[in-house]
Automatic annotation (TrEMBL), chain A:
Pfam families: SBP_bac_8. It is found in: Periplasm. Keywords: Signal. It comes from the Bacteria. The keyword Signal applies. It comes from Amylibacter marinus. SUPFAM superfamilies: Periplasmic binding protein-like II. PANTHER family: ARABINOSE-BINDING PROTEIN-RELATED, DIACETYLCHITOBIOSE BINDING PROTEIN DASA. InterPro entries: Bact_solute-bd_prot1, SBP. Gene3D superfamilies: Periplasmic binding protein-like II (3.40.190.10). Its main location: periplasm. This is Sugar ABC transporter substrate-binding protein.
TrEMBL record, chain B:
Belongs to the binding-protein-dependent transport system permease family. The keyword Cell wall biogenesis/degradation does not apply. It comes from Amylibacter marinus. The chain crosses the membrane at residues 12-37, 86-112, 119-145, 151-174, 203-224, 258-279. It holds the Pfam family BPD_transp_1. Its main location: membrane. Keywords: Cell membrane, Membrane, Transmembrane, Transmembrane helix, Transport. This is ABC transporter permease. The keyword Transmembrane helix applies. Residues 87-277 form the ABC transmembrane type-1 domain. InterPro entries: BP-dep_ABC_trans_perm, MetI-like, MetI-like_sf.
Automatic annotation (TrEMBL), chain C:
It is a multi-pass membrane protein. InterPro entries: ABC_transporter_permease, MetI-like, MetI-like_sf. Its main location: membrane. Keywords: Cell membrane, Membrane, Transmembrane, Transmembrane helix, Transport. PANTHER family: ABC TRANSPORTER PERMEASE PROTEIN, INNER MEMBRANE ABC TRANSPORTER PERMEASE PROTEIN YCJO. It comes from the Bacteria. Belongs to the binding-protein-dependent transport system permease family. It is found in: Cell membrane. It comes from Amylibacter marinus. Pfam families: BPD_transp_1. This is ABC transporter permease. The chain crosses the membrane at residues 7-30, 114-141, 153-177, 204-229, 250-269, 307-331. Residues 118-329 form the ABC transmembrane type-1 domain.
Length: 409, 294, 341
């Protein structure tokens, strides 16, 4: 793949400059993960190791296969690259191993905050961070005479003004595609409203409350300033809208911000007007309406200790600080690696972290709620049912799923 | 229907019929022509996010490249994203699936057409049920065992699965072809002292080719157009074309991939055009084979 | 044919179907009756790049022995089939008792995922199949009246919608029907409504998918009927013409009865194919408006946490649906078979 090639080229040039460096492994390594550029870089860098075969399978469908691929004994995959949402499925089925001994042995170069510890055991090593935050058109906002919004209420005001002045018909963008994306926007907004997803210490859901209703109403108000097809727009389609100059304000992933206006045929107006800011708050709350994410790697449980060690060495090598010497690589993500200097595009994610945003919840049943939200909220967004009904449906769908999975009786 | 066409038809009706054919042709062919045209534009033009006429004039393409057409999408799909791999994989998969399906299907279909015991009925019914099953109900069940036995991700595994999933259809089609071959042919060979297999080899095989070629075409189409099996059972470098196209769209972290998908769609459709051009008659006869006999 | 000969001839194909179709079905049926064991939850401290937090996790040691004793999971019988994600007996009962009018009752049933998926699947199936048969028939009549040389060209282009992969075909149409795409703009012009968007409204999305379904399969019906027209009984046609039957009467009383068996054939094949509508929903990004059983299975399998038992139960119900849909064919094949023996 193209990105792989860039990454390999970068890594090779690096290898030439630091000739003392070498990576020796003694067993096979097999990595499954998502396919975006930063992960391609990590995968390619892991493949530099000598002494054992390193294979990668980086695909958007990774989540459909990683669990099955790690359940066998020995497991097909010795490592899965996951995020804080998807590590949970692997934890639930007990297919990844604690890494404490390997960290002690080979992890000297890792920073403390890269280690994901659960109940005192290191279960994953994070290498990048991500969050959704504001991306806007500075030129359009200036024309409309508004400041970059700090809250969603400001955003609505700004959108109203832009529409009234006739600058844009649908100035707000958002990845509101029914399913995962829509549910994620709900999560953001609900957290911004100070909501709690579950009753403390239990798997019992509680989103059908005042915060839940306020969340949905805010989403509905925003959607009125969006392209009417918003329920089919994922982040790709939303970015395309932005590039076409149809959108002035959107809540977008930090990992997409750097390359947002790179595509072909984008007008200079859009390119030059692009600006990034931290996430917004909502309803007078102090917690930003967004979630923090990390991407990291795990090591499978059902493999030999030699394979686990090889995997750990190869992947630690893949995220060593030197990879950041390549400018192309440094731009690909907000790296958690030692020595990372934030690029201008990273400011949104950094603001999100410093403003006290909440990490995406890492509880065993959060994924079930996410799926339920994704399936049940679209009726409300289409105006077919009340917010209370949509939330009640979500709770019922979640409860059925959680019962099946043994989280509720 | 020579008699009807020989009969003089009123002018109005003739015009109406011709107009309808033209209308249908536009309906059938326009989407393909439009996509072909648009595949030489940039994303902003093809998707006409600003204005639909951009797709015709290529305004944004011109801004990016100075000309109104560009082959960047093809370059991106074929070279950068190595779509040629998917093409080769598809070729391998289709070839093997067709050969295996036909070999197994002719044997089985022939046996079904020459046996009158009750179990042949139930086997045919089971095959029909299998034919109607959505593949996704089966494919998810393969994942665990395939990973366990280290079979997942390879082309041979997918080929075998596709052959198996296509068997019910192949069986039905070949079964109806063999039924049209008179039983007396192989019966008389058997009277002459041939075994059933010899009768099959010397008497049936020489006359079965029209049916087999037609069935082969449909096996080919099923393998070529498969999405679910390839998407779930093949690793990234072994992907076939349709899952590769879906992957261009499924990616959420790289910009401009949608045009790669458009170029790939055009690339994947072109061989089918050629196929139809050469095998039109077989396809038509195949579609009607099961039907005309009632 | 002797049993033994039959066995050897049928072995390869039989084995393939047994291993890759019959066994998976059996395992799916078993899977649908078991669920994972009750999870023992504990509260622990999780730390990462964004600080530490108290959170729940599964106590693996406590569940490990349970899993070892019963690796299939917990037997629940038909519980999954009747839960809210599937047949939802409890919810329907509650809706029956709680609804004051039938309208309220039906809308609360439509709110349940299984019935919503079935509503779309059946609507799609039973609207698109008759329409595509009618369209295919008209095309066949029109093409049949063409000049011989034109026929080949027309058939060539007519086959195209049918032979492309459903995912590819629906993507092509999806791209065109965008509210600023060429078809979308044309429809806005026709409807005289510049804000009209096919993708934003449920009825229009349904129309779009149904139109796609017709476009995709009308060529099949066309080709079958066209072949049927080649074997029209000439004597009857001539007799009808001599009797002074109008063109419509000829079609009505000679052509249609002649191709009626073909209509049945096309209808059955298409019912089968339309019932498993799936790639269309993916291609059109239509999950907010339209779902199907296959889509439900995919949704269960592709979430952050997979619901294997639920997906298996939906698969079993798909199988039952297929059997019901196919029952007329089964009866017919049985009759054929009886005649044969």
């Amino acid at each position: 793949m193209y990105f792989k090639r860039i990454a390999v080229a970068g890594a090779l040039s690096l290898l030439a400059s630091t000739s003392a460096y070498a990576c020796e492994i003694g067993a096979r390594v097999s990595i499954v993960g998502n396919e975006f550029p930063a992960i391609q870089t990590v995968g390619a860098a892991a493949q530099e190791c000598k002494g054992g075969e390193v294979s990668t399978n980086l695909t958007a469908d990774h989540q459909k296969i990683n669990l099955a691929g790690m359940s066998g004994n020995p497991a097909e995959y010795t490592s899965a690259i996951v995020a804080n949402s998807s590590i949970v499925a692997l934890m639930n089925e007990d297919v990844i191993r604690p890494l404490d001994d390997l960290v002690a042995k080979h992890g000297a170069g890792l920073k403390k905050n890269q280690l994901i510890t659960i109940n005192g055991k290191v279960m994953a090593v994070a290498f990048m961070a991500n969050a959704q935050h504001l991306v806007y058109r500075a030129d359009v906002l200036e024309k409309a005479g508004v400041e970059a919004p700090k809250t969603y209420e400001d955003m609505l005001e700004a959108a109203k003004k832009i529409r009234e002045m006739g600058i844009m018909e649908n100035p707000v963008g958002g990845a509101y595609k029914a399913g995962w994306n829509l549910a994620q926007e709900f999560n953001n907004m609900y957290i911004g409203h100070g909501g709690e997803f579950f009753k403390p210490g239990s798997a019992e859901v509680s989103i059908n409350n005042a915060q839940g209703v306020a969340t949905l109403n805010m989403m509905k108000s925003l959607s009125e300033y969006m392209n009417p097809d918003f329920l089919t727009h994922d982040s790709n389609a939303t970015n395309a809208e932005y590039r076409a100059g149809n959108v002035a304000l959107m809540n977008m992933w930090g990992s997409r911000a750097a390359t947002l206006s790179d595509a072909e045929g984008v007008s200079d107006e859009v390119k030059n007007g692009m600006a990034i800011a931290g996430p917004m708050t909502v309803a007078g709350g102090s917690t930003p309406a967004t979630t923090l994410w990390w991407d990291g790697w795990t090591v499978a449980k059902n493999i030999s200790d030699a394979e686990a060690e090889a995997t750990f060495i190869a992947l630690t090598n893949a995220i060593r600080p030197e990879i950041l010497a390549d400018e192309e690589v440094a731009k690909q993500a907000v790296w958690l690696i030692d020595g990372y200097e934030p690029t201008p595009a990273a400011v949104g994610v950094f603001d999100a972290a410093s403003a006290g945003s909440t990490p995406y919840p890492m509880v065993p049943y959060q994924g079930l709620l996410h799926t339920a939200l994704g399936a049940e909220l679209s009726d409300f967004m289409l105006g077919k049912e009340s917010a209370e009904q949509a939330l009640a449906d979500t709770e019922a769908a979640y409860t059925a799923a959680a019962k099946e999975k043994g989280f509720l009786n | 229907m020579s008699s009807v066409s020989a009969q003089r038809r009123p002018k109005g009706l003739r015009i109406a019929a011709n107009a309808f054919v033209v209308f249908w042709l536009i309906l059938a062919a326009f989407p393909f022509l439009w996509t072909l045209w648009g595949s030489f534009k940039v994303e902003l033009d093809f998707f006409s996010i600003a204005d639909w006429t951009n797709a015709l004039t290529g305004a944004n393409t011109e801004r990016a490249y100075g000309t109104t057409t560009t082959t960047t999408a093809y370059h991106g799909a074929w070279i950068e994203q190595e779509f040629w791999r998917a093409v080769i994989n598809t070729a391998v998969v289709c070839f093997c699936v067709v050969c295996l399906s036909l070999t197994m299907g002719t044997l089985g279909g022939y046996a079904l057409s020459r046996s009158n015991y009750r179990y042949t009925f139930w086997l045919l019914i089971a095959a029909l049920m299998f034919r109607a099953m959505p593949p996704i109900t089966l494919v998810s069940g393969y994942l665990l065992p395939f990973f366990q036995w280290n079979l997942w991700g390879y082309l041979p595994t997918t080929i075998v699965v596709l052959v198996a999933i296509n068997q019910p259809f192949t069986l039905w089609m070949l079964h109806s072809f063999f039924q049209k071959i008179p039983k007396e042919l192989d019966e008389s060979a058997k009277v002459d002292g041939c075994t059933q297999f010899q009768a099959f080899r010397h008497v049936i095989i020489p006359v079965m080719w029209p049916g087999v070629i037609t069935t082969g075409l449909f096996s080919f189409l099923l393998a070529y157009n498969d999405f679910v099996v390839g998407a779930l059972l093949l690793s990234e470098e072994n992907r076939t074309m349709v899952p590769a196209i879906a992957a261009f769209l499924g990616t959420t972290q790289t910009e401009g991939n949608v045009m790669f998908a458009v170029a790939a769609v055009v690339s994947a459709t072109a061989p089918l055009f050629v196929l139809v051009m050469f095998f039109q008659r077989q396809i038509v006869s195949g579609l009607t084979a099961g039907a005309v006999k009632g | 044919m002797k049993h033994k000969t039959f066995f050897w001839f049928f072995l390869p194909t039989g084995l393939a179907m047994l291993l890759f179709i019959a066994f998976p079905i059996v395992s799916v049926v078993i899977q649908s009756m078991y669920t994972p064991h009750d999870a023992v939850l504990i509260t622990v401290e999780n730390c990462g790049p964004f600080g530490c937090k108290q959170a729940t996790t599964i106590d693996q040691e406590a569940t490990a022995s349970l899993r070892a004793a019963e690796p299939l999971g917990k037997f629940v019988g038909t519980e999954i089939f009747t839960d809210r994600g599937h047949l939802a007996f409890g919810e329907i009962g509650a809706a029956w008792r709680g609804s004051e009018t039938m309208g309220v009752f039906f809308s609360s049933i439509y709110n349940l995922p299984f019935y919503r998926a079935m509503t779309f699947t059946l609507t799609f199936t039973f609207i698109s199949v008759p329409l595509l048969i009618i369209l295919g028939f008209i095309i066949a009549l029109a093409v049949n009246s063409l000049n011989r040389h034109l026929k080949g060209v027309v058939i060539f282009f007519s086959l195209l919608p049918m032979i492309v992969a459903p995912l590819v075909g629906s993507l092509v149409l999806y791209w065109m029907v965008d509210s600023r795409g060429v078809l979308g703009t044309f429809i806005q012009y026709l409807a005289n409504d510049p804000d009209l968007s096919m993708k934003a409204s449920t009825p229009l999305t349904w129309v779009m998918i149904i139109v796609y379904g017709i476009w995709h399969s009308a060529p099949f019906a066309f080709v079958v009927f066209y072949a049927g027209l080649q074997t029209l009984p000439q004597d009857q046609m001539e007799a009808a013409q001599i009797d002074g039957a109008s063109r419509w009467e000829q079609v009505r009383y000679v052509v249609i009865p002649h191709i009626m068996p073909l209509v049945t054939f096309v209808a059955l094949i298409q019912l089968m194919d339309k019932f498993r509508v799936f790639e269309e929903i993916i291609g059109f990004n239509a999950e907010a408006h339209a779902t199907s059983l296959s889509w439900m299975i995919l949704n269960d399998l592709s979430g952050e946490t997979q619901l294997l038992s639920s997906a298996a139960a939906t698969s079993v119900m798909t199988l039952v649906g297929v059997a019901i849909l196919l029952s007329p064919v089964l009866v017919r094949t049985w009759r054929d078979f009886q005649e044969k023996t």
